Amino acid sequence: MTSPILEASGVTMQFGGLRALNDVSFGLAEGEVIGLIGPNGAGKTTLFNCLTGLYAPTSGTVSSRGTPLPHDPARVTEQGVARTFQNIRLFPSMTAEENVLVGRHVRMKQSPIISLLHGPGFRKSEREARERTAELLEFVGLARFSDELARNLPYGDQRRLEIARALATDPSVLLLDEPTAGMNAQETEATRQLIFAIRMLGTSVVVIEHDTKFIFTLCDRVLVLVQGEVLVEGTPDEVRGDPRVIEAYLGAPPDEVEAQIHEAEETQ
Amino acid sequence: MTTIEARAVPTAVPRRGRLDGLWSALAPRATVLRVLAGVLTIIGTYLPWATFVLNEGPYPDKATLNFFVDPLGVTGFRLHLLVIGIAMIVVALLGLPAAGRIIRGLGWGTIAVAVINGLYILVQGGGFGAVTASDGAVAFGAVVALVGGLVAVLGGTAGGLGAKPELTWRLPWWAEWLILLVVFAIVLFLVAGVLTSGGQGGVVNPYAGAVFLSVLGALGGAISALSASGLLTWVSAVSERHRIFSVVVLLVVALLLPLTSAGTEYWMTVAANIGVYAATAIGLNIVVGLAGLLDLGYVAFLGIGAFVAANLSGAAASEIGIELPFPLVMIISAVVAGIFGAIVGSPTLRVRGDYLAIVTLAFGEIFVRSAQNNIGGLTGGANAIPNIPAVSAFGQSFAAPLTIGAVKLPSGVLYYVLIVLLVAAVMLVFANLKNSRLGRAWIAIREDEDAARAMGIRTGPVKILAFMIGATLAGLAGAFFAHKTGVVAYDSFQFIQSVTLLASVILGGMGTIPGAVLGASILFVLPEKLREFADYRLLIFGLALVVIMRFRPQGLIPDAHRRAELAPDAEDETPVVDVTT
Q: Which of A224, B373, B405, B426 lies 20 to 30 angstroms, CA to CA, from B386?
């Protein structure tokens, strides 16, 4: 195996006296889908923020294909790591199309001078960006909402639009922060299909989710984060069977959790 | 999905609320009320408006008792009312689909005209007797017209406003071109008419302010009625279909203004000043409207451009004392202003929101105090830099009258042409940038800076670019300003000017070109026109701002997106005008 497409080694994040992440290490292989689960406050989103350069880890490094990533979200995105947010962070007064076009920013060759004069190459780069945008909106099933303001989209569609916007940066790694939060069963299933489709494109995915059923049916590997540390790492089967997970992560009576897990198996 | 449907055009349902009972009681008599409103307005037109003879000349177009000497000769604001009254009756009897909406708009226009003129006469005549009855004379014109306006609003609302029709007529291209030509010609005469209405303000003509406001009121009513009829939307859709044609015609129309009634030296100067502020406002619109960075010291860039130009143009008072050709001066002024823009913009990397506003405010103050104290000997301090030579080309000074064949044009026309071209260039810059990778990056930063970073936008350089380009445009305008006025003094660049510029961007509509131009026009013409109100000038000015922002928070010509964001509901949709000249 070549060096992982995204790798965290010994990432520690300290906020004052609070250690949000402690020596977290994992590697993401090309085309792999990793699930990140853990109770609230376990540090999942903090880990995402470290991976995308929003936070500079107190110690440890994040690297992609062997090269360390900078502590600057814009440049991390340029290097092919894109994300969505736990609370939807679209550009509300822009249309769906414009939102995705912003995602094309890093892949468009258009200097300010060319923008100003609409000089040679301007039309070409705009057309290419719009074509790609149309493709992506089609891909996530929002083509009909192309000219609708993001703020006016139904909640579930806003989440899908956020995914389309992230995909517009042509990422090799996509980090999804609770992509099904607030969705009903139908929408959740549609999102699951969407993530499978994304994997088919060759994009690796890390997904944070509370819905264990969702995670176990979707992911190649699951990472359980508890109090800032990786508690268990393994295939869905391994994680599912691990008593520590049942005890520490869910904090619920074991039989109830087992029932939930069985249910997951049945739907599989 | 519900949110999308909620934005659909409201149907013919009267408003719900505390007034429900009133509307349903009036509904059966709506048509009668509407006709009555028209009749009252017309009667108001023909009644005397003042119980005294105002000044020795008649108050604009015979508001006096002597009116019946010439009964059909209605002119001025009475002509406006007459037209509005007739329109009300015609619309009411035709039963157009949006009749209620149209008549309500006309009603507000009538109210505005009646209140403005009535108040003016009342103040001049020293009390209510002036507009009712005193000393055996009666003058109920204002009162009757006001009642007519109120009845129109009531009758219009009571019978159901009616949906705003969506007109989808498609005509052959030549017919649409013809329509656009006619519309733009009308716009030209309206602009000339509104600009010159009431004449030059000041001691010479104490009526200027009242007449101007009254014209604005009538025009507002007419535009709101036109908008309700769906015609404005249709025309703007047509001009959108023939975009390039429209832009060319608009430019030509703007250049034709000197041939209209506005073609005198005074109005050309006013128009050139509007142009300076319009260009600056468009620059500010990049910073505030697109990138969402609040700048409270923006006029400093206009000042920097002006002082640089003043120093490089051979003015005797300048310490540098070199004289460069005007185009070069303009470029240097723009570049220097742009560099300062980048300097002011650099704190934006660290400061956001309110704190940024304070940083820019401080920069504006630093600039104006430095200029006042003549730091570096470059600004002339309190003496200013006077006698900046006029621009000249091919032996023709821009400050002198121009004769082409048999046509004699007043002095200032060449400056006007120059500023029109400059504003057009600035508009082009704005429009091109807005619809580009950079423009989208600015808007994304305005919307959500963190998300923009996560999408790969390097927010630092992008924000500095916004400041730089905005400042460059202001610098260009500043160079023009220096040559046009011939004097550059620090007090043209005070804090209040920055605020007025910001107000014109917000008033006109953030993020749009016509908005910034309209905003700048209104905010820089109003004080000119309101001169005779002296102490009350700023009061009226401020009141007008409050009223507009209360009823139209998204600005007069809002960005399509922002309109959706800030409009309380489609119900309150009022005119969207295409006034780009």
A: B426
Whether B225 and B309 share a structural domain = no
CA gap B124, A106 in Å, rounded: 65
pLDDT at residue number B12: 45
The rounded distance, in Å, linking the Cα atoms of B28 and A137 is 51
Delimit the domains of chain A by residue range. Answer: 1-80+171-268, 90-169
Range of the domain at B285: 278-526
- Residue B337 C-alpha, separation from nearest chain A C-alpha, in angstroms: 18
Domain boundary among B480, B495, B526: B526
* A108/B437 touch (CB, cutoff 8 Å), yes or no: yes
**Residue of B4, B432, B454 with shortest CB distance to A52:** B454
Q: Chains A and B: how many Cβ contacts under 8 Å?
A: 118
State the smallest CA–CA distance between residue B277 and chain A in angstroms.
22
Inter-chain touch B436–A110, beta carbons under 8 Å: yes
**ipTM (interface pTM):** 0.89
Q: How far is CA B559 from CA B309, B445, B502, B573, in A?
A: 34, 17, 16, 13
Q: What share of chain A is helix, strand, coil (3-state, %, to 5)?
A: 45, 25, 30
**Which H or E run contains B506?**
helix B495-508
| Alpha-helix residue ranges (DSSP H) falling in B373-435 | 413-434
Low-confidence ranges of chain B (pLDDT < 70): 1-19, 53-75, 201-205, 534-535, 537, 560-581
| Cβ burial, residue B275 (10 Å; 0-12/13-18/19+) | buried
- The verdict on a CB contact (< 8 Å) between A73 and B453 is yes
- Residue pLDDT, tens place only, B295-314: 999 999 999 999 999 999 87
* Percentage with pLDDT > 70 across chain A: 91
In a domain, B413, yes or no: yes
- Write down the pLDDT at residue A150: 93
pLDDT tens string A159-210: 999 999 999 999 999 999 999 888 888 888 999 899 989 988 889 999 998 8
CA distance A70 to chain B (A): 12
- pTM beyond 0.90: no
Which residues of B fall within a CB distance of 8 Å from A93?
A: 443, 447, 561-562, 564-565
- Please give the single-letter amino acid code of residue A159: R
The reply to whether B428 and B485 lie within a common domain is yes
Nearest CA in chain B to A100: B455
- Inter-chain touch A122–B440, beta carbons under 8 Å: no
Q: For residue A147, what is the nearest residue in chain B, using CA coordinates?
A: B561
What pLDDT sits at residue A249? 60
Q: Domain A1-80+171-268 belongs to what topology?
A: Rossmann fold (3.40.50)
Given B478, B498, B526, which residue is the final one in a domain? B526
To the nearest whole Å, the CA of A252 is away from the closest chain B CA by 35
Per-residue model confidence (pLDDT) at position A203? 92
